[in-house]
């Protein structure tokens, strides 16, 4: 297995390790610890949680989120190994809970969230990307769950979301071996939805997708995401009931009224966002 990039923690407490950049209806969450390959220390996880919580309050003014890592080497190279070295088992579990809380918060945002991967997405970095709705990546990207080489297992959702993304057998192989895969295999496995030649094309492609979704009914996109997340991994009968409930909820929105009226009147809809 290729050696995992080391993640120094010298910049773990820098004030802008996570920031939000707004451009109209699109928000970009930037993890900016370039010197440590954007590693996820407990402090960075707290900052990510705060950023996602802020965006959760934006309402219909927010139509999509891009999640990126600073620099050109890594999306997120993993959890901050140096920061984890002295943790007790209970403290390790607490860090895992922080990672799961961030993932759940990303899944709860009622808008599309795209992980824009340029470089390494390993360990906690891959788990963070898996919590997003879509993974877009450059040709220079690679992916893996190398925790077993450290005597650990994935702790931020890898054993849960990776099988859903690539199937149980392939997920087991990747987790048991710690093997890293490149962009070709990641696309073939269905892990990466779209690939791009470079970072500029990646961000442009992600924005294009978000802008297309932004033209649709905000409430409908949010309900669809809620159902998709809740139904993942459930029995078919449970998933069907979740979809029926979501379909019912959509009927109660003004966006539904406007969408139907616009279709019948052969005009472009002007969705009110509620």
From TrEMBL:
Q: Which family does it belong to?
A: Belongs to the enoyl-CoA hydratase/isomerase family.
Highest taxon of source: Bacteria
Q: Which UniProt keywords apply?
A: Lyase
EC class of the enzyme, as a word: lyase
**Pfam families of this UniProt entry?**
ECH_1
Q: Which Gene3D superfamilies match?
A: 2-enoyl-CoA Hydratase, Chain A, domain 1, Lyase 2-enoyl-coa Hydratase, Chain A, domain 2
**A GO molecular-function term, please?**
enoyl-CoA hydratase activity
Annotated protein name in UniProt: enoyl-CoA hydratase
Recorded source organism is Agromyces intestinalis
* Reactions accelerated catalytically: a (3S)-3-hydroxyacyl-CoA = a (2E)-enoyl-CoA + H2O; a 4-saturated-(3S)-3-hydroxyacyl-CoA = a (3E)-enoyl-CoA + H2O
SUPFAM superfamilies attached here?
ClpP/crotonase (SSF52096)
Q: Which GO terms describe its biological process?
A: fatty acid beta-oxidation
> Key word Lyase present in the record?
yes
Q: Please list which residues make up the signal peptide.
A: none
Matching CDD domains: crotonase-like
Q: Quote the EC number.
A: 4.2.1.17
């Amino acid at each position: 297995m290729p050696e995992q990039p080391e993640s120094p923690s010298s910049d773990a407490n820098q004030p802008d390790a996570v920031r939000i950049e707004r451009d109209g209806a699109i928000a970009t969450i930037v993890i900016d610890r370039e010197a440590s390959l954007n590693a996820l220390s407990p402090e960075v996880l707290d900052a990510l949680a705060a950023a996602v919580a802020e965006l959760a309050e934006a309402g219909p003014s927010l139509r999509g989120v891009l999640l990126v890592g600073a620099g050109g080497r890594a999306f997120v190279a993993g959890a901050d190994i140096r920061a984890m070295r002295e943790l007790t088992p209970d403290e390790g579990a607490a860090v895992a809970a922080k990672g799961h809380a961030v993932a759940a918060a990303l899944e709860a945002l009622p808008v599309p969230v795209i992980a824009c991967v340029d470089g390494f997405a390993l360990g906690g970095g891959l788990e963070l990307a898996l919590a997003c709705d879509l993974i877009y990546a450059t040709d220079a990207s690679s992916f893996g769950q190398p925790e077993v080489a450290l005597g650990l297992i994935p702790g931020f959702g890898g054993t849960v979301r990776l099988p859903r993304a690539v199937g149980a057998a392939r997920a087991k192989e990747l987790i048991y071996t710690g093997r890293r895969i490149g962009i070709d295999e990641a696309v073939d496995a269905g892990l990466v939805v779209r690939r791009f030649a470079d970072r500029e094309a990646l961000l442009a492609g992600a924005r294009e997708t978000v802008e297309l979704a932004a033209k649709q009914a905000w409430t409908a996109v949010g309900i669809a995401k809620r159902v998709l997340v809740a139904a993942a991994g459930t029995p078919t009968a449970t998933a069907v009931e979740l979809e029926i409930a979501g379909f019912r909820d959509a009927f109660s929105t003004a966006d539904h009224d406007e969408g139907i009226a616009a279709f019948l009147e052969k005009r472009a809809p002007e969705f009110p966002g509620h």
